[in-house]
Amino acid sequence: FSFHTPRTVLEDLITHEIDVFRKQNANKGAAKEPNPKSPSDSSKKKMKLTSKGVSSVDDDQDDDSGSLSSLSDAEPDAPMIKLPRAIERECALLFVDMSGFTKLSTMLDVESLSRVINSYFDMIVSEVLKYGGDILKFAGDAFFAEWKVVGDSKKDSDTFPDAKTPLSELNASLGASMVSMNLSDNDDFDDEDLIPPLSMCVARAAKCAMSIVEKYSDYQVTAQGNASDAMLNVHCGIGVGHLVGLHVGDYKEGQEEEGDELRREFLILGDPIDQVARAEEIAKPGQVMISPEAMQPLSFCCGELYFTNPKSQPVCLANKSTSFLVFDEITTAALQIDNEGAFMQPYESLRMHCRSLNQNALARLHLQTALYVHPVIRANELALSQAIQAGKISQPTETVQGRHRAEAELRSVFTIFINVNMAPKVTGTPDVDAELYQKLADVMHITSRELDRYSGHLRQFIVDDKGVVLIATFGLRGSTFPNMVSNNGLPAVFSIHRALKQEAGVENKIGATFGKVYCGVVGGIHRHEFAVMGAPVNLAARLMGSKVNNGILVD
């Protein structure tokens, strides 16, 4: 599940568990607590994970819903992370947009298509991880990655003045990992003392983007049995500034206080999203464009810059054959990567923090991580675990990548794009922003509730250049029925459209299509997500954003 989850989400969840663990230990010193494992405590409830989410059960209740038995010991003796929860940071944001997959889907069988898609994604994802980036969100054939300021930056010290808080310690160790993975052989060199932390983040994002377009632009793919070749391409946009990571979740109706959760999503909000959207929009294939806001911190790291564009417009840093950016000697040394496997160091730091947690805390952490994973993947993993525990199959010996390739498929899917008419603008005013966060949480709950009524899936909740968008599907494993479009899909569309207006008070536009799409995991070995891709998906997005769409457009 952790490979389906941004590293920053794991950091937030581990930080929460460390904080809870320390508070429990402090309370034990003041008063002896009953043993949570005591067999006499029959009133305790346990948490279990199923394909539909997390729910609480009595100790003596039979577990017949396919839950992971290894997680059934997670007792609700401590609160899970309270939603909605916003975590703020300063960061450099990179948007990587790939193209060419739609043509490939008409040329290749599903196994070959899955292999090509994930091979190309893996090379680009690996490049981001190598330079210390964290992939926050996949968006079809694109993704957002961040390089955030960690450690003892001014923002951290202002928000968390006590250096011994769990978050500051976690950030400090992660910051040390990030610095160590980028150092050259000169052990006395300390880039953070000489280069402003935010400037270093932008430099890493820029260096990564330049490497991506140089290596993977105009990437030829030959289809077996097909005389014509296809070409994959990539272009990038870079922004910088204040970003909010927002955890939102769905819950069983009327049980939001009971901890019975169905699904979580991680949203990113802030000006850097608008910056990368503007930069990426004017980027041609093979180009890296950077916002003028990001140019200012980057100037601390450059020897010479060759730009003719006005400062009010995004400017081109590089294309496939030429880089217009020259880093100074100090930055060049700081960006040198001697150990190709060093990108795993931040994850190793997270694992070290997990070692201080007890069994209940680790089980809660696993439960919460699973909630960020698409229900299809969650159901697959639960079914596999249940079959192994029952002795029906042996432990798989194939790689995770091989399993994902085997599970990918082309299916007839009813795809729904929902654009909610609201401005996701973070103001910095606590009360105003809290109202925004709650509104986004309400939108997710209402949409998920209506989908559940008709047995559909929420594919994704995202805030990007299109605004506030939810993507839903009918036709995936677990949501395929006779007369699916007329009996399930279309009624759900009308129900969602009406409920969002009446209950959340937000206008919305919906586009929907039906057709064959690629369904499977996309991304790299160490970071991936479940996705649906293909021409019908692209058409649904266009219908949603069409100027003639007054509410609902269906192909």
Tags for this model:
single chain; 555 residues; alpha+beta; six-stranded mixed β-sheet
Detailed description of the structure:
The chain is α+β, with helices and mostly antiparallel strands and 555 residues long. Helices cover 40% and strands 26% of the residues. Strands 3, 4, 5, 6, 7, 8, 9 and 11 form an eight-stranded mixed sheet that branches. Strand 16 and strand 17 form a beta hairpin. Helix 1 packs parallel to helix 11, helix 1 packs antiparallel against helix 12 and helix 7 packs across helix 9. The two termini are 35 Å apart. About 10% of the residues have low confidence.
Structural class: alpha+beta
Strand count, sense and barrel status of the largest sheet are:
8 strands, mixed
End-to-end C-alpha gap: 35 Å
Rg on CA atoms, Å: 24 Å
Q: Estimate the mean pLDDT confidence.
A: 80
| Count of individual helical segments | 17
Characterize the overall form. globular
Number of extended strands: 18
Low-confidence stretches: 36-44, 62-76, 152-166, 176-189
The fraction of residues in strands falls at: 25-35%
- Helical residues, percent: 40-55%
Set down the secondary structure blueprint.
Layout: H1 7-30, E1 45-50, E2 53-58, E3 85-99, H2 101-105, H3 110-130, E4 134-138, E5 142-148, H4 154-159, H5 166-182, H6 191-194, H7 197-216, E6 219-222, E7 229-251, E8 261-270, H8 271-282, E9 288-290, H9 292-298, E10 302-305, E11 315-318, E12 325-327, H10 329-335, H11 345-354, H12 359-370, H13 375-389, H14 400-407, E13 409-420, H15 430-453, E14 457-464, E15 467-474, H16 484-503, E16 508-523, E17 528-533, H17 535-545, E18 552-554
Parallel strand pairs: 7-9, 16-18
Antiparallel strand pairs: 1-2, 3-5, 3-7, 4-5, 6-7, 7-8, 9-11, 10-12, 13-15, 13-16, 14-15, 16-17
Helix pairs in contact: 1-11, 1-12, 3-7, 5-11, 7-9, 15-16
